[in-house]
Amino acid sequence: MSIHSSQSLTLVLGPTNTGKTHLALERMTGYASGMIGFPLRLLARENYDRLVRKLGVGKVGLLTGEERILPAGARYLCCTVESMPIDANADAELANRRFDFVAVDEVQLAGDRERGHVFTDRILHARGAFETMFMGAETAAPLLKALLPDAKFEFRDRMSRLAYAGPKKLTRLPRRSAIVAFSAADVYQIAEFVKRQRGGAAVVMGRLSPRTRNAQVELYQNGDVDFLIATDAIGMGLNLDLGHVALSADMKFDGRQMRKLLPSEMAQIAGRAGRHMNDGSFGVTDGCHALEPEMIDAIEQHRFAPLRAFYWRSRDLAFSSIDQLLGSLETPPPLPFLFRKGDALDHQALTALASRAEIRGAVSGARDVRLLWAVASIPDFRQSLHENHYDMLASIFLTLVAKGVLGNDMVAKAMAQLDRIDGDIDTLMTRLAYIRTWTYITHRSDWTDNPNEWQDRARSIEDRLSDCLHSRLSERFVDKRAAHLSRRLKETKNLIASVKDDGTVLVEGEEVGRLDGFTFHPTLADGEDKAPILAAARRGLPDEIERRVRAFVASADPAFRLGPDGIVKWREAEVARLVKGDGLYVPRPELVASDLLSIDQTQRMAQRLVSFTAAHVENVLGRLIILETPDAAPVGDNKSQTEPKSAAMAATTATAADDRPAADAPAADAP
Question: Which pTM does this prediction carry?
Answer without folding.
Answer: 0.73
